[in-house]
Request: fold
Amino acid sequence: MDHIRILTTGRGIASRTVTNDDLSKVVDTSDDWIYPRTGIHSRQICGEGESVCTLAEEAVGKALEKGKTRFGIREEDIGCVVGATISGATATPSLSCLVQQALHLPEQIPVLDVNAACSGFVYALEVARGLLCANGKRYGLVFGAEALSRLLDWQDRTTCILFADGAGAALIERVPEKEVPYGSFLAARGGTEIVCGGVNTEDPHIRMDGKAVFRFAVTVIPVAAEGALSLAGVPADAISHVICHQANARILGHVMRKSTIPREKFFQNISTAGNTSAASIPSALAQMEEEGLLKEGDLLLLVGFGSGLTYAGMVIGYGRKEAEDEKAE
Ligand code: UT7
Reply:
């Protein structure tokens, strides 16, 4: 089966900045409590006229625009759109179909959302790979987008301090196996440690057993990372950057202490992004691209974990290495 790699990225940032001090005016909390336990100083949430749709459109639009400029890829070259979200504006149409309409993407391609919470973007990449292998098209658009502020109980200090809004996207390319390593390890352990509404409850808000989630996360992150490395057949030192779901700086700190991968390879933006669930990994990637941290030919390790309980690891390449090599010649 062919592999995939990421060619370009984009992100949509919600415009309203909410600091810990702002939250302390709404619930009984403080920066002194929140920052040491989560690493979060501030987060972005949707302002006037913004929604999960506008954020997703912005992120996917930017990834596509970069694909046009850098690689000459056009709308009609896109072979699938796979979005990851738990906070789509409507149960149907899917968020992906709304993005397809807004960006005038082709009609005769698969377009769908996946729900794997904070692992959603990694799941969506693997789904997109399967679709591209099946329909023979070369390029796909994959995104994670959330407006979690809509699902929060703003009186619940155990959740409203953590979650935020945002979107990130990647333009991917299907490539022959030998061209670039790829490994995808997807898993789930059915559980209700994080829940958001449901058929048997009137409560539409996100609720969470924070300690249980913490224990789950530190257990499964190494499993997902090692699973992906082993399936890709590459050693840990081949990895250029590790992008973990930005849930909590303490979880990341714990993982970094135990990992053989040097901590400077772990990207972190939790302090200003908060936890944006499915949007957290792709928007971190887009931020890295904007900051010039990603180089053509980099090998990335993505790790997601969250509600479901789902977890996922992926080794995936960034950019076209040969493009760099050609330039050097
Ligand atoms: O995508 C996955 C998303 N989820 C996560 O990543 C969550 C992982 N879990 C965590 O990060 C931590 O469990 C939290 C940061 C959520 C909570 O930290 P904790 O050290 O596990 O706190 P706790 O729930 O045990 O609460 C300790 C105390 C309690 O008071 P009492 O019972 O000791 O009097 C809470 O009521 O802290 C209180 N508390 C707060 N106080 C001030 C809980 N939330 C707050 C708050 N401000 N926001």
